[in-house]
Amino acid sequence: MILKKNICVIASSLGGGGAERVASQQTKMLHEMGYNVFVVTLFNNISFQVVGRKLSLGFEKKRGYNVVAKLIAHYKIRRFLRKNNIDIIIDHRGRSSFLNEVLYKFVTYFKIPVIYYVHSYVIENYIPSNNFFTRQTFKRAKRIIAVSNEVARKLKTEYRYENVEVVYNHIDFCNINVNNESWNTPDFEYVLFYGRIVNEVKNLKLLINSYAQSVLPEYKIKLMIVGEGKDKNMLVNLVDELKLSEMILFKPYTDNPFPVVKQAKYTLLTSKNEGFPMVLIESLACGTPVVSVDCKSGPSEIILNKFNGLLVENNNINALSEAMNSFVLDKELYKHCKLNTKESIFKFNKNSIAKQWLDILK
Predict the structure, then answer these.
(1) Cα distance between residue 46 and residue 311, in whole Å
(2) C-alpha dihedral over 65, 70, 75, 76, to 10 degrees?
(3) Is the pLDDT of residue 164 over 80?
(4) Which uninterrupted H or E stretch holds 266?
(5) Assign residue 329 a region: left if phi > 0, alpha if psi is -120 to 50, beta otherwise?
(6) How many domains does the chain have?
(7) Do 296 and 268 fall into the same domain?
(8) What's the rounded mean pLDDT across residues 184-192?
(9) In the β-sheet with 290-293, what is the strand arrangement from edge to edge?
(10) How much is the pTM?
(11) Is the same domain home to 231 and 315?
C-alpha cells in the first residue's frame, strides 16, 4: 500500500522540448503509482498533457519577467505549496541564477524536501555556479537526479556532490502505439530530425552539410526537419544556397511527432551536447533506427553501434555522411538494426523507471 504523499512537479514550461516532455510524463507516472500530483509551471507554453492540480504563472518566455514579477511568482508558488500540504518537490526547471535558487530553496521551498533534476551535460544550466554557497544549497537536496551516467559522473567529480542518482527518462510504449494511428504520413522516403531548431546546441549545419555530401539526394531520400527555433530562417537560407530546397523540407513543431517518426527511414541526432535525448528512445520505440553523433551525454548509453543504430564521432562531417550512406547502401545492416529497435530500449519502459522512483520517494 503506497502512502498517498502529495508531490509537486515544478517545470519552467510543459511544451516544446525533451525535458518538458519528461516532466509531463512524470506527472502521469506518479499518478498511476498512487501519489497525489500537483504541477507548477512558470511560462505559458503548455502543449503536453499533465495530470494533477495545476498552477500556471503564465509568464511570456520571450519577454522574461522582472524582479517584481519574480517575487510575486515566489509568493504564489510558496502559497500553492503550503495550501496543498506538499510533501516532496521534484524540480525540473532550468536554474541559471544563484540568488534566485537561494530564494527558492530557503524561502519558497522552505523545509519541503526537494529533488532536483539535471537534464543536460551542460551542468551550469541547472546548477548556476560551482562555489561554496551553491554547494551548500544543493547538498541539502534529497536527491539530484542525473539523466545519464555521464551527467552523474560530472556532478560527482567536478561538482563534488554525493547525493546524485541516475534515473533514465522513461518511454511509454502504449502512448507511442496509440499516437501512431493519428496522422497521414508523407508518401516519399525520408530521414528525420525533430527538435528545437537552435544551431548552437543541435548543430544543424552539420546535419545539413552531411546530408548534402551523402548519397541520399541521389537516391531521392529527403531530409525532413520538424520543429521551431530561432535559427530556422538561417538554415532555410543555407539549404537554398546548397540548391537542396526540394530535398530538405522544414515542417512545423508538433507535440505528436510519432507517426512521422515511425514512417522515417531513420532519425538523426547531431547535437553538440545533450542530457539523455528523448528523440533517440522515442524513435527506437517507434521501430525506427537512429544515426547519432557521440556527444556528451546520452547517445552512447542508448545506442549499441550497429545493433539498433549507428554512433559516430561528434562534429565529423565525413563520419556522419558515411553513416547516413551505410543505412542506405548496406541493406542487411539496416535490417538488423531495425529489427532490434524496440527490444534494445525495453529497460527504459515506464514500469522499470517507476520502481526506481518508488524507492526514491520512500
Answers:
(1) 33
(2) 20
(3) yes
(4) none
(5) alpha
(6) 2
(7) yes
(8) 88
(9) 248-251, 222-226, 190-194, 267-269, 290-293, 309-312
(10) 0.90
(11) yes
